[in-house]
From TrEMBL:
The gene is glmS. This is Glutamine--fructose-6-phosphate aminotransferase [isomerizing]. The chain holds residues 271 to 615 of 616 of the full protein. Its main location: cytoplasm. The active site is at K341 (for fru-6p isomerization activity). Catalyzes the first step in hexosamine metabolism, converting fructose-6P into glucosamine-6P using glutamine as a nitrogen source. It catalyses: D-fructose 6-phosphate + L-glutamine = D-glucosamine 6-phosphate + L-glutamate. It comes from Blattabacterium cuenoti BPAY. Keywords: Aminotransferase, Cytoplasm, Glutamine amidotransferase, Repeat, Transferase. Residues 23-162, 195-336 form the SIS domain. The keyword Nucleotide-binding does not apply. The lineage of its organism: Bacteria, Pseudomonadati, Bacteroidota, Flavobacteriia, Flavobacteriales. Homodimer.
Length: 345
């Protein structure tokens, strides 16, 4: 547990997490990283896959802990397994952790709750220090987990020289701008309230994103399901033509994450396909956007940020939307039915 003091410091260019520094060689020589988690933490893990592969060039696999624990996964002595859990008590994640350790893997934990079962059982790790999550549905834990994953990818990338100094410094600077941009993104609440008034009776929603924003689409759909009890599905936008497009008609609102630095032209193509089938588009765009603005039924404007850090911002309007819809429908946003804060069975 000694190494499990996630110290996330960004004074100028120094980024430091204890559990990494003291296990530097393991990270430098890693051939593969497997990330296991459940629910929202699993979505953060998928974002981790994009981040780690991009910045460290280490192959990353992401698995549901609830599947991983019951099979015979191929993880061995030189492998790194990262477990992510807000509560640190999720039974499936804890069981996956123990299996990975039994197989000899080095297990790194990302947890919010200090001294939790997962935190006590890992070889090293970082706390997210997101403060208590009072509500059952994870929100700030998600962005905190992504922040740790960004730092992890930056540090390992620097050790392995897979990112150069310029890129490292640029991303550190961008990270420093995140708090201000989060404040800005929270100001979209008034727009989101108005959009929620239009769609609170919808029975289904589709959420689309590409690249690192595909897991954000999954997370947006999960938040809506968890607290509003509305059926929602998240998809990579490019997969839409392989099935979900059959669902699109005038009764299908579709959230599209259409950030400028992402796959902008491709996303515009996806939006046109939906519009041609009379689907309603709610687009998350960057300030100054023109093209999507003209096509979408509603736009939610967020500040510009590097695509690789954008999930920290793009998820906020989706969390706010789930909240507003649940509120309008008279649901208890903090204690949704059938859900527990930590699933310990
Ligand atoms: C995993 C999780 C949460 C979800 C709900 C049930 O929890 O699926 O993502 O919002 O609270 O548990 P954890 O392992 O991250 O604590």
């Amino acid at each position: 547990l000694d190494t499990l003091r996630g110290r996330l410091l960004i004074p100028e260019k120094i980024i430091y997490i204890d559990g990494i520094e003291s296990n530097k060689d393991i990270f430098i020589n890693a051939k593969c990283i497997t990330i296991v988690a459940c629910g929202t933490s699993w979505h953060a893990s998928l974002i981790g896959e994009y981040l780690l592969e991009e910045l460290t060039r280490i192959r990353v696999e992401v698995e549901y802990a609830s599947e991983f624990r019951y099979r015979n996964p191929i993880v061995g002595k030189k492998d790194i397994v990262i477990v992510i859990s807000q509560s640190g008590e999720t039974a499936d994640t804890l069981a996956a952790l123990k299996l990975a350790k039994k197989k000899g893997a080095f297990v790194f934990g990302i947890c919010n709750v200090v001294g939790s079962s997962i935190a006590r059982n890992v070889d090293a790790g970082a706390y997210t220090h997101a403060g208590p999550e009072i509500s059952v549905a994870s929100t700030k834990a998600f962005t905190a987990q992504i922040t740790v994953l960004v730092l992890l990818a930056l540090i390992i990338g620097k050790y392995r020289s897979t990112i150069n100094d310029r890129c490292y410094e640029f991303l550190c600077k961008e990270l420093g701008s995140i708090p201000g941009k989060v404040d800005y993104a929270l100001k979209t609440d008034d727009t989101i309230k108005k959009i929620s008034q239009v769609y609170h009776n919808a029975n289904h929603f589709l959420y689309l994103g590409r690249g690192i924003n595909f897991p954000v689409a999954l997370e947006g759909a999960l938040k809506l399901k968890e607290i509003s009890y509305i059926h929602a599905e998240g998809y990579p936008a490019a997969e839409m033509k392989h099935g979900p497009i059959a669902l699109v008609d005038e009764n299908m609102p579709v959230f599209v994450i259409a950030t400028k630095k992402g796959y902008y032209n491709k996303i515009i193509g996806n939006i046109q396909e939906i519009k041609a089938r009379k689907g309603k588009i709610i687009a998350i765009v960057n300030e100054g956007d023109i093209q999507v603005n003209m096509l979408a039924d509603h736009v939610i404007k967020i500040p510009n940020i590097s695509e690789i850090l954008s999930p920290l911002i793009t998820v906020i309007p989706l969390q706010l939307f789930a909240y507003q819809i649940a509120y309008i429908r008279g649901k208890n946003v903090d204690q949704p039915r059938n859900l527990a804060k930590s699933v310990t069975v």
